[in-house]
């Protein structure tokens, strides 16, 4: 019945053979003549139509000012193409429909490493090595957290000095986040933006958000793990750069200013693709099951 409608008889292309992500914003994702299209300027004299190669990409990131039709969702589901509603340049992630990918290798590898206490601490030590620049001899997670916490205090101070920001230490009241000074508020907002980028990276690989190696209780534990890998190189630069602009008289509210800074850095430095590569690195997905050594992590 209705053979060819929405291209439903076409076979899927495996995700391993597809390109990565595509950003679309300020338009309508719809189906025209069985093909996925993004229509922008719908109410203008000459609307722009972009045909989206939905079978050749893994995930569509739908930005602000966008809508999606029922037929478009059906087409994406049929071909296993993921879609997430996000902020500009991925500084927020709002929802990702549970369209399952065609492979489970990343999730299985993550579960395999997480399920073994020895391998789990090995991955955690690897993550700390990436963050701290050295492999620590300790194998107790609480000890590693304590060492990292002490070094982070130093990094905060050095970053504040670099940007010429007065720093009185890290303070955050969850019950009243607005009570913090400008640098601390900037760090909070920057951390939220980077976590959104990490969530997109985790979703795009179909990794398991709940199975963290350093963070444990959160439903986004692995997302927080990945976001922390970029704390020094991305999060703090976004935060202190925004705080500096405020100190120089910029009257933009701190949340909006941080989003703008994050958007610029994400785009220029390719943060989300870098996160995807980092996930593959920490999970060592290139290794076959049972091969390789975890003792060197």
TrEMBL record:
<dbReference type="GO" id="GO:0003677">
    <property type="term" value="F:DNA binding"/>
</dbReference>
<dbReference type="GO" id="GO:0043571">
    <property type="term" value="P:maintenance of CRISPR repeat elements"/>
</dbReference>
<dbReference type="InterPro" id="IPR042206">
    <property type="entry name" value="CRISPR-assoc_Cas1_C"/>
</dbReference>
<keyword id="KW-0479">Metal-binding</keyword>
<protein>
    <recommendedName>
        <fullName>CRISPR-associated endonuclease Cas1</fullName>
        <ecNumber>3.1.-.-</ecNumber>
    </recommendedName>
</protein>
<keyword id="KW-0378">Hydrolase</keyword>
<feature type="binding site">
    <location>
        <position position="215"/>
    </location>
    <ligand>
        <name>Mn(2+)</name>
    </ligand>
</feature>
<keyword id="KW-0238">DNA-binding</keyword>
<keyword id="KW-0464">Manganese</keyword>
<dbReference type="GO" id="GO:0016787">
    <property type="term" value="F:hydrolase activity"/>
</dbReference>
<dbReference type="GO" id="GO:0046872">
    <property type="term" value="F:metal ion binding"/>
</dbReference>
<dbReference type="InterPro" id="IPR019851">
    <property type="entry name" value="CRISPR-assoc_Cas1_ECOLI"/>
</dbReference>
<keyword id="KW-0255">Endonuclease</keyword>
<feature type="binding site">
    <location>
        <position position="148"/>
    </location>
    <ligand>
        <name>Mn(2+)</name>
    </ligand>
</feature>
<comment type="similarity">
    <text>Belongs to the CRISPR-associated endonuclease Cas1 family.</text>
</comment>
<dbReference type="Pfam" id="PF01867">
    <property type="entry name" value="Cas_Cas1"/>
</dbReference>
<dbReference type="InterPro" id="IPR042211">
    <property type="entry name" value="CRISPR-assoc_Cas1_N"/>
</dbReference>
<comment type="subunit">
    <text>Homodimer, forms a heterotetramer with a Cas2 homodimer.</text>
</comment>
<feature type="binding site">
    <location>
        <position position="228"/>
    </location>
    <ligand>
        <name>Mn(2+)</name>
    </ligand>
</feature>
<dbReference type="GO" id="GO:0004520">
    <property type="term" value="F:DNA endonuclease activity"/>
</dbReference>
<keyword id="KW-0460">Magnesium</keyword>
<dbReference type="InterPro" id="IPR002729">
    <property type="entry name" value="CRISPR-assoc_Cas1"/>
</dbReference>
<comment type="function">
    <text>CRISPR (clustered regularly interspaced short palindromic repeat), is an adaptive immune system that provides protection against mobile genetic elements (viruses, transposable elements and conjugative plasmids). CRISPR clusters contain spacers, sequences complementary to antecedent mobile elements, and target invading nucleic acids. CRISPR clusters are transcribed and processed into CRISPR RNA (crRNA). Acts as a dsDNA endonuclease. Involved in the integration of spacer DNA into the CRISPR cassette.</text>
</comment>
<dbReference type="InterPro" id="IPR050646">
    <property type="entry name" value="Cas1"/>
</dbReference>
<dbReference type="GO" id="GO:0051607">
    <property type="term" value="P:defense response to virus"/>
</dbReference>
<keyword id="KW-0051">Antiviral defense</keyword>
<keyword id="KW-0540">Nuclease</keyword>
